[in-house]
Amino acid sequence: MINLFFISTEIFLSLSILFLLLIGVFKKNSESFIYNFSCIILLVGLAININLNPQFPIDLFNNSYKIDYFTTLIKSVILISAFLVMLCSLNYVKQNDILKIEYPILILSSILGMLVMVSSNDLIVFYVGLELQSLALYVLAAFKRDNILSSESGLKYFILSALSSGLLLYGCSLIYGFSSSTNFDLIYQNSQSIEYGIIFGIVFVLVGLAFKITAVPFHMWAPDVYDGSPTSVTVIFAILPKIAALTVFINFLYGPFLEMFDQWQAVIIFLSIGSMVFGAVAAIGQKKLKRLIAYSSISHMGFALAGLSVGTNEGIQNSIIYLIIYLIMNIAFFCCLFMLKRENQYFDKVEDLSGLSKNHPLLSLSMMIILFSLAGIPPLAGFFAKFYIFTAVIEQSMYFLAIVGLLSTVIAAFYYIRLIKVMYFDEQREKYDLNHSFGLKMILVVSSTIILIYFINPNIINNFVSNITII
Amino acid sequence: MNFPIISSLILLPSIGALFLFFINSKNITGIKYVSLFVSIINFLISIYLWLIFDQSSYEFQFVESKVWIKDFINYKVGVDGISILFIILTTFITPLCIFSVNSSIKNRLKEFLIAILLMETLMIGVFCSLDLVIFYLFFEGGLIPMFLIIGIWGGERRVYSAFKFFLFTLLGSVLMLIAVISIYWIAGTTDVEELYKLGIDPKYQNLLWLAFFSSFAVKTPMWPVHTWLPDAHVEAPTAGSVLLAAILLKMAGYGFIRFSIGLFPVASEYFVPFIFVISLIAIIYTSLVALMQDDMKKLIAYSSVAHMGFVTLGLFTFTQQGIEGGIFQMISHGIVSAALFFSVGVVYDRTHSRRINDYGGLVNVMPKYSILLMVFVLGSLGLPGTTGFIGEFLILMGTFKKSFLVAAIASLGVILGAAYMLWLYKRVVFGDLTNQKLLKIIDLNKVELSILTLLALSIIFFGFYPDPFSNTYSVSVENFLNEYNDKLNSYNLQNQ
Question: Which of A379, B164, B204, B387 is most buried as measured by Cβ atoms within 10 A of its Cβ?
Fold first, then answer.
């Protein structure tokens, strides 16, 4: 008998989406209601998900769907960050005229797709989840219909994403052809001997996934799409799909292809080094904060991938800690972006930050904490994220990766401290509005406090991941 | 468990900074009194620590150890005879910096004092951490407040200097981070005491030594990576320059003793010629550069590089005199350079010029200032009877034991030091009063007078009576050298 209890999060989310659609169709002017209600749905989904708490791995639907501690943890992370993202972008959405009934529903469906991706134990289920989340995101990217940049970014994302999905699907078919199964466990059993067809398949799938997490050289879309999309969508791009896709990286590589570690390790190292270095170098010349954070997130993904390239449980755990800290920092950063507004107009250029510290000392203080943390300066949380990654990397004596990574943090530090320079050393400009929603302020204060005082007791976050055993 | 005195030393300034954060920034006197109070209390605690410190023991004392990151790193702090003096130097200089901000810092006083207090926390942390990761945290954490101190309150080219400072030191330090993690995997721990006992496999030592060196060399600073220092010094506000010269530079010197030499004896022995060569270059070259400086702060900055060259020279002689001299020279330089930067700050506040040519004949209008400045200049060039002499003398003695040639060249540096310092003094203080602006200049006010007198007295007092310092560190240094030689001998035995 199929135990549906363990997918109650997904079921709940699907039913809620349908319910909200019905409300949207039959009730006029229900946009705000739906938006608020979907926030609550995410919270309830989170509660359901935490309540699952599986003691041992559970397989569903002929072993094509897997629930264990790891997937539950990642799902909780996705749900809570989706909730935070929706909460902090509420005012932005209202003021930029993108609050339509579809907007929250699309976000919810994208979240549903991510949950499916995270739990998938089968190539087809995984592809279905991936496409569900991507399709919703294409529309979200182009949500500001009358804005040419937004439409362009939606189209760009759609075309390139379709290309990468094609590659990914081709890889899946190769894997299926050479191992005669789409199920991860069966692939593992059938692919003990190294066959080049399978390796080709792995590489194609990795290309598709690397596209989703914007790893170099599949990052080209990121700056344009980040920049063109409404900021409330950019924050989703920067956080949610990356968590989901990186989890799939882990499930996919360390599941069916664990034995071929030597074959795919080089690919991951290449992606990792490329992302770390390119992300750091390319961000230096950026004049827009959203483009800058796009490159910065490329570089951060490189670090997370470095943890995956190690091939140990510690490496995976440290990558997940990295992701958690990364998402806290990014949510905090975008909260600051949402606060740079004057009379319903939002600002996102580097020069708009100039002299921020004079008029908005607290905002610039939290921004400074976030930026130093992103740069990885101790004793902030961002340092520990990198420290853990390199601990795992050096354990396997991968010194080259460690040295390149750390040198790229020095390069990256340059553009982070440039922002601090603009805020603190430059002349002040006009003031910004102060009437921000309570939720936005709370999220910024709490997240920057977490970043600041993480070092006092790192175990609180580390304990979540210390139970994860993939290998 | 006893009262955690070291942790309270580390934490107190931070608590003070947190307290300041909540005070209204318009309440200037309140802010000043709170920060001054906190730093003086901290100074008293450190003096108390010094008094109850057992000078006859070489063990680490007042050790506190606590699990920090589970199964990975312990928070461990403690002091021995070497580190305690640096802590006292820190707690001694910080109140003076806070005391001196009256005139030099015009805007955002609250933030400035918060930064200074945070700096104090981090610097004390560096000197008493007994775990490599904890050490790294404190060592690197200092970048943030110092970057802001230079960048926000600095002079005209402050942005350039702040960036240069930040990126240079960060670049040096990341390699050290790799070395720290490697040590964890090679030896299984990052606990310094444990590592002293276990020793590190000699085949890894050279690379690890170089990684640590890259960080300390930038921070010391050694030639050729010293170029950030003059820029940072020139642009930083007075209190920032004082902190930089008096304490930040000592973090690297301390790091050389505690980590480079203590952990990697085989590599240290191997790299002695290398250290000697670049130390000599630092001494001679930067002394010559200092001679030609037009800017007072730059001159003192280059003299700092030269003095730190003496320190590294002394430390790597591995003789009792050399290491003791190195430590003494660091303490002495901490006091003397702080005093010199304060003195430059005094005239800069009045005339807003650091150019030596803008001065001359100050003795006519500022007699008190001229007398005190003379004490500092003499202390810097190492006149017998000042602290500078003892340090340089011991270092040269230690160096003579190792190599006559090196000591002879280093002695040249002493002469050059006398040349540029006396020439500076002559150009600033003696001569005719040519600059009309200087006619209206007023002599030291009470605050400046008390700060400078205190520093001058300590330079002379410890110059005549260095025992309080030397008693504190001699047992530790002796034991340190014994352990060093033991490790080296056992390695040589193995290789025969």
Answer: B387
